[in-house]
Structure formats: structure tokens, C-alpha cells
Amino acid sequence: MPELSIIVPTKNEPSARKSVLELLKAFGNSAEIIIVDKSDARHRKELAGTGALVLSQESDGYENALMEGFRLSKGDIIGTLDPDGTYSISDFGRVVAELRKGKADFVSGNRFAHPSRGAMTPSIAFGNRFLTGLFNILYRKNIHDALSGSFVMTRKAFEAMRDEEPYRAGTMFFEIELARRGYRIIDVPIGYKPRVGSTSRITRAKPIYGLNIASHSIRYARDYNPLVIFGGTGLVLVVIGLVLGLFVIGNYLHTGALTEIGRALIAFMLVVLGFLSIISGLILDLLLQIEKKLYRK
Ligand SMILES: Nc1nc2c(ncn2[C@@H]2O[C@H](COP(=O)(O)OP(=O)(O)OP(=O)(O)O)[C@@H](O)[C@H]2O)c(=O)[nH]1
Ligand SMILES: [Mg+2]
Fold first, then answer.
1. What separation in angstroms does the CA of 62 have from each of 26, 102, 109, 281?
2. Range of the domain at 25
3. Which of 6, 25, 37, 113 is most enclosed, with most CB atoms within 10 A?
4. How far is the CA of 15 from the centre of ligand 2 (A)?
5. Helix-, strand-, coil-residue percentages of the chain, each rounded to 5
6. Whether the CB of 149 sits within 6 Å of ligand 1
7. 57: domain CATH number?
8. 82 CA distance to ligand 2 middle (Å)
9. Does residue 11 have its Cβ closer than 6 Å to ligand 1?
10. 94 and 58 assigned to the same domain
11. Same domain, residue pair 218 and 265
12. For residue range 115-132, what is the model confidence (pLDDT) as tens digits?
């Protein structure tokens, strides 16, 4: 059984051949390398000549491609690296080495550590940071880059999520599913180079992709961390209600007549709804803690 399985997703990727040859040179003797390909005939032909195992992806999308490869892999450590020329092979070795230390169940490469000039556009960088921040808050983690195309996990961690149906969240699909199951997630600094000669293959509309990721991240956190979701929403409602209420009271004191009945009612409802949401969060959190205790027993 190989110790390491490397799954390489490709979709009409001009630099895939070069990246795969580099991977084979560095890891060919010690690792199982599986390409999961969704390319047209011309790009497929280039890959066939590398000598690596090429699987034809049956499903659609990056997340499904990885799941197809991961499910077939046999290594104790399972990982992936985008072959679009933006990641370095030696950095991938350091990501694997970090997992081997046993301090985490999932390790990814943080591209914000040493990016080359122009590797990430400011808007993509902003989106990545926003989604990573959201993930950290919702799942109580402390990573720097939740959407890296270079990551590895233990066989045990993968087996826990093997039957999960992938949703469009890129690398965060794996991070959300492992975080929900209590696995440890960290990242280590890596470099990141600009994409040359081709455009993103993962999606044509990154803002919509980003919104999708945020919504999945929030949806699944409801089961994992209800206090933050319901408590946070409740707090926002209470604050808005109180501010609105203070305006109404201020006006009443000023004019001596209560004219803003509508606003007063809305303020009252917002505060009540807010409190209900906070209480729901507290109750759900309590139930989750009891469930966790029972599960451990
Ligand atoms: N098999 C398969 N591979 C895919 C699919 N979508 C993207 N890929 C590959 O997955 C890797 C990551 O996709 P990228 O397009 O680089 O995504 P990205 O890194 O967010 O975008 P860039 O910043 O433009 O590089 C690349 O090697 C793609 O060729 C897919 O549907 N199927
Ligand atoms: Mg890329």
C-alpha cells in the first residue's frame, strides 16, 4: 500500500503535463498519483503520454473530481495539488511533512504567506480572506487560506466523510465536512505563482461561486455552532430594535406626543425576535453539548 496518494484534478489545463511530469519525478517512486480528468481530446492526449494513471471524470466539478480520486486511492495520506503551474512541488512536500507530525488531520498550503506579484487579483484575495474569516468564526479554527489547491489529510479523516455528497465549495467542502466531524485543520506557508496562459477552470463566475461557498459554510455551521449563528443574528436584531426604539422614545420626549406607533411596534418586534433567536441558539447549543457527551460515552 502506498503511503501517499496524490490526486490531480485537470480540466483543459495547458500546464498540466509539465506539472504531472514534475510530480512523477519528485514522488513517482513513493506515491500513487491519480489524475482525474475532465478535458477535451486534445488535452487528454497530452496527459496520456506522461505515464501517470488518468481517470476520466464521470461527474462534474472540482469537488466531485477530487472525491472520485480520493475514493479510489489507497494511501495512508491523501492529498491534492492543482497542476495549473501556480503551486510548487517542493511546497507540497512541506504540506505532507506537516501532516506527518501528527498535530493535525488536515493540512493545506497557505498561499497568502509568500505570493508572487500578481498571483491573486485584489478582489479574489479579498473574497478568499472573507470566506476564510467566516470559516474560522463558524467552525472555531485559525487558518489563513481556506481555498488552497494544495492540501492533504489522513486516511482516517477522509473515511469519515467518504460518503458525503459534494457541494460547490471548493476546498472548503472538505474543510467544512471535517470540521463538523471534529477533525483538526491547520495550514502552513507556501508560495503561489500567477496562472499563465489560461483562465480559471473551476468556474466562470467567481463572485457567484464565493456566495455559494459562504452559504454552504453558514448552512452547515447551524448544526455545528448554533450559538454563533442564532446568537449572532439575535444580537444584530436586538441592537437594530433598540436603536429604532431609542429614536421613537427620543421623539416622544421631544414632542410630547407618541406619533410613531408603527416604528415603535417594529422596534418591539425586532427586540423580541432577537431575544428568541438568542434563546434558540442557547438551547440548540445545550442540546449539541449533550449529544456530544452521549456520543463520546
Ligand atoms: N477534473 C476536473 N478538474 C477541474 C474541474 N474544474 C477545475 N479543475 C481543475 O482543478 C484545478 C483548480 O482549478 P482552477 O481553475 O485552477 O481554480 P482556481 O485555482 O480557483 O482558479 P485560478 O486562480 O484561476 O487558478 C485546476 O487544475 C483545474 O484544471 C473539473 O470540473 N473537473
Ligand atoms: Mg488555480
1. 24, 27, 18, 34
2. 4-224
3. 6
4. 11
5. 55, 15, 30
6. yes
7. 3.90.550.10
8. 6
9. yes
10. yes
11. no
12. 899 899 999 999 999 999
For 233-252, write each residue's pLDDT tens digit: 999 999 999 999 999 999 88
Amino acid 1: pLDDT: 66
Do 133 and 26 lie in a common domain?
yes
Q: How far is the CA of 62 from the centre of ligand 1 (A)?
A: 6
By the 10 Å C-beta count (0-12 exposed, 13-18 middle, 19+ buried), 58 is classed as exposed
- Closest ligand 1 atom number to CA of residue 13: 29
pTM for the structure as a whole: 0.87
Number of domains in the chain: 2
Domain boundary at 168, 198, 224, which? Answer: 224
> Distance between CA 275 and CA 141 in Å, rounded?
27
Q: Which atom of ligand 1 is nearest to the CA of 206?
A: 20
Same domain, 292 and 163: no
Query: Of the ranges 52-56, 181-185, 225-229, 266-270, which one carries the lowest mean pLDDT score?
Result: 225-229
Cβ of 9 less than 6 Å from ligand 1: yes
Residues 36 and 159 reside in one and the same domain: yes
- Picking from 224, 245, 276, the residue at the C-terminal end of a domain is 224
User: Residue 176 is placed in which grid cell?
Assistant: 467544512
